[in-house]
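Morning!

As promised:
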Amino acid sequence: MKRKNLAITLAALAAFVAGGAQAQNEQFIPANGYWVGPYAPGGSGFFGGIIDYFQMLNTRDGGIGGVKLTWEKCETEYNNARGVECYERSKKHPPTGASVIHPLSTGITYSLIEKATADKIPVISMGYGRTDAADGRVFPYIFPLITTYWSQNTAVIKFIGRKEGGMDKLKGKKIVNLYHDSAYGKETLPVLDVQAKKYGFEVTHIAVPHPGNEQQAQWLEIRRIKPDWVILRGWGVMNPTALKAAARAGYPRDKMVGEWWSGAEEDVIPAGDAAKGYIAAAFNLPGTSFPAMQDVVKYVYNKGKGDLDDKTRIGSIYHTRGVVAGIITAEAIRDAQAKYGKKPLTGEQVRWGIEHLNIDDKRLKELGAVGLMQALKVSCMDHEGGGAVKFLQWDGKKWNVITDWISSDQSIVRPMIEQSAAQYAKEKGITPRDCSKES
Amino acid sequence: MLYREAGQFKTTYAEDQQIFPIRQDRIAMALLLVVAFVVVPMIANQYWLAAILTPFLILALAALGLNILTGYAGQLSLGTAAFMAVGAFMTYNFVLRMPWLGIIPSLVLAGLCAAGVGIAFGLPSLRIKGFYLAVATLACQFFVLWVLQRVGWFSNHSTSGVITAQKIVILGYEFVSPASKYLFTLAVVAVMALAAKNLMRSQTGRAFMAVRDMDVAASVIGIRMMGTKLLAFGISSFYCGVAGALYAFCYLGTVEPEAFSLDLSFRVLFMIIIGGVGSILGSFLGAAFITLLPIILSVLSGAFSHVTGIEISYAVLSNFELIVFGGLIIFFLIVEPQGLARLWQITKEKLRLWPFPH
């Protein structure tokens, strides 16, 4: 009896390892994210959002063009080595392999750039990753969609300028850039230096080592500098720690502007009252009032299927950010289906779809995502597509929108992107694509 | 019955001193090498080559490096990942700045740089021992990463501090495919493992062990403390440095200093504890165990939920992995401080007698 059970288990295991033979009319998208560790709030919320949106499409529309979306979770722990392992595991998944990857980690994105380009699998690093990948001529498979770190950073400076009463008022102001000491955190150092020179403010970069729950020394220095503004470029546990430390150091929270990876509910609630008045950037808005979010609640959570265990997180910043990622991915697949037919698509075909994404206001309305995200137009030259940022302020209970979409300053960002991408191309011996010849 | 050395007579000193004195061992080793070099690249798929076997070999090499220092010479170190980082970043710089050098000399030079750093941070070992030395090497871990992050030269002034490993090219052949990278790694690891094995059988290796077992006695019988300890640090760091370079060039491709965090140092330490302190084989067993366990757990849980329909949450799984590691480390420390390698040795001894117990 025992032996028979064992045999059945082994057979089932073999069937599993051999890869579901039932996978036919399915589009596979790996969910290589993180649900444990210091960055788990971001990972679980974001991937919860993507998976919920896919689930909603499957239930409401029967997938995209009749092709069901499937996914499989793989825990990367925000760790490069694990991320690469997950990528390798997922890339050959039936029926057509991984069709698009969201690494949700700047470090993992960096590790995947060459691998994914060689394997012809597009990587969407939405609001993170390598900024100069926005130059699609050099990075055909990498898409830092919506807004890159550099664009965001120019929008932050614009916002600060607006608060000060004009960009010319920035002259002589002191700004501290408190950043997470990782590839992610360091990404904006050059663009800030360029802007400091242009507008005449003084910028001090202060690093916080990973994971960031120790910031005493940094805030002592901030107290000594007495900056007019602090830009918080934190991630995970570093954010509430910074807010609490700011409260202790007596630094006004409404002079602190966070990045979008520092501006979620999970970043401010643990800081309690210390977070009141804190401002953060966002490329997606929280809430469940948008029709797209309503559908997620209706078709997924009301049927007891949602991916988030904690139902109070539905509609939180990270969750809606995941939904936005889901919308973009689904739209790209839809576009690619229009060209290649309604069948499971390969990564190469989905790449075409992403590169030809054009989500205008009309389409946003159809998707029920007006206000949830901005309009987006991607091209061979421009793998970013959007470029605008809104600012939110935390009132102790919820995020309130305090600006409209503030566009980034592409006159600063684009030349830097092209220069940096050209240097990469030279180092790697890549011949940039000629965009006029791309269809 | 098969594993018996009856009838194998050794008539020369050379035969008596060879690495594998038993014929069956020699055959098994030859078979293993043939499998690793020929059969595996033919049958293994990309996932196995790129995501499992290559990192396994690289981490085994790092574990081997640490084992030389901690297992053989008895000097506790928590700076493994830092030495790996030196190796990775220096190889990148050698290839970048002296492209005419070629990859192998760059690897060796980077290993020597790591050895230099290792010797510098090994200096405290002349005065302090045990936990205090561990703390001194911990300082090395933080200091090296700090320098790599702060000094732009190391990452060629990359904005985000990451380096992208160049292509490995030897005599015009480009190592691009997972199989070729695996073979490159395997060749380096095999050569270095053989060197380590021989080193440990030499006078130097015996001096290491004498220092480990009792340094006062060792110095009384005429072993120079300073030279021996620093040599151990140097050789160990050299191994770690090469492992780090392979980690960047053959596995990750693009690396930020954060990839060589303290976590990695601890992982390598766990490898030698579980695999076997003071054993070449143990480094490989430990590395296999630690790289494979999380993957096996997650595949098994996937299969489990596939069969039963119950999904195990990732939080549970990830914590379970930590629990298993913690439990195993305590288990090995209490029951078998010599690790998996010792279990293998016991099995071998039993096999030699089998089927007769006496």
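Residues 24-148+287-386+418-437 of chain A form a domain with the Rossmann fold fold (CATH 3.40.50.2300).

Hope this helps with the figure draft.
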